[in-house]
Amino acid sequence: MNTRRAIFFCLLTFQCFPCRLIAQQPFHFVEKITAADGLSSDAITDITQDDQGFLWIATTDGLNRFDGKEITQFFHQPNGWSLPHNFIYCLKRLPG
């Protein structure tokens, strides 16, 4: 009788324990970022994260890179080596 209880307890423990680990939600940090914080516009059109962890935020007035502390803004420049315009519709992560 004691052997049956021990086996039942072990089976119950091993079946339920992994379920509890899977059921735990990962920690998500949420922060509100606005133009007052340095974003080029409050009108956000798309967001993506690159392999280095930077958040790229597309807006109706420029592209923004957020590193967790600071925002770097990118705008169209007439030199030909910049964004084609400041209204960024969407972002696409390229492999690599």
Features of the shown structure:
4-stranded antiparallel sheet; 21% strand; 23% helix; 1 helix; 4 strands; alpha+beta
What does this protein structure show overall?
The protein is α+β, with helices and mostly antiparallel strands and 96 residues long. The protein is 23% helix and 21% strand. It contains 1 helix and 4 strands, in the order H-E-E-E-E. It has a 4-stranded antiparallel beta sheet with strand order 1-2-3-4, with no helix packed on it. The N and C termini lie far apart (60 Å). Residues 8-21 have low confidence and may be disordered.
Write a short abstract of this structure.
With 96 residues, the chain is α+β, with helices and mostly antiparallel strands.
Q: Layout of SSEs?
A:
Blueprint: H1 2-23, E1 44-49, E2 55-59, E3 62-66, E4 71-74
Antiparallel strand pairs: 1-2, 2-3, 3-4
Measured distance between first and last alpha carbons: 60 Å
Estimated helix fraction = 10-25%
Radius of gyration: 24 Å
H/E topology pattern: HEEEE
Q: Kindly state the mean pLDDT as a whole number?
A: 79
Gross morphology is globular
- Which stretches are low in confidence, meaning pLDDT under 50 for 5 or more residues running? 8-21
Number of strands: 4
Instruction: Determine the strand fraction and express it as a percent band.
Output: 15-25%
